[in-house]
Amino acid sequence: xxxxxxxxxxxxxxxxxxxxxxxxxxxxxxxxxxxxxxxxxxxxxxxxxxxxxxxxxxxxxxxxxxxxxxxxxxxxxxxxxxxxxxxxxxxxxxxxxxxxxxxxxxxxxxxxxxxxxxxxxxxxxxxxxxxxxxxxxxxxxxxxxxxxxxxxxxxxxxxxxxxxxxxxxxxxxxxxxxxxxxxxxxxxxxxxxxxxxxxxxxxxxxxxxxxxxxxxxxxxxxxxxxxxxxxxxxxxxxxxxxxxxxxxxxxxxxxxxxxxxxxxxxxxxxxxxxxxxxxxxxx
Length: 283
Known about the structure:
The chain has about 280 residues and is an all-alpha fold. The chain is about 75% helix and about 0% strand.
């Protein structure tokens, strides 16, 4: 009986360790994943509707040229005009404005978050100035600095500054009190408390504000260049509107949209890398 029991047990173990047949496409899940194309559905539908509207003349071609006409206009602007030069001019302005505005905002936001006196010193002035739109400052700044790049950089940097400053300040003030108490129990120095507890806890709020500010800076460059300047994508848009060059207008709009998407995705990847330690709901 004992021999029979051992035989049955050995057979059960052997059966349990037998490899089950794998589906034919099971290996695809290890080294290869099909790309998620869900995000392309809506752009494809919009493009199809646009082509149908142009082909059936639902809208006059003066107001909505066909997609192929826009592609032809893009090639003409790229090869025979100065589209690349205007594009680089806009990129330079946005990069400088975002850098200056965000660095100043993060620095002052951290200082105000760590010190009530600093917040009380800057608070009333900042709360007044931030309610004046950046575009409202543009005529005055143009009188001071002219219509060159510095005026546009200053206007955009001002618009970038306040959302980053407020989110940095609020991110520091929202640090869990339990973390501060634990740091005090561990007898951390002031610098260790800031570096190891406060800044990491506030970093999600700071990164979200930087991502928002990058997109805001790119959007505002169009208005700043349109109202003041002789180069850049904003200038091209307002010029195309005045000359009723709808195809060139759409070229600039598509470029602005695609570049804005690229900026947002880039900031998202930076945010994901910086906050890789933080687990959240994936949806």
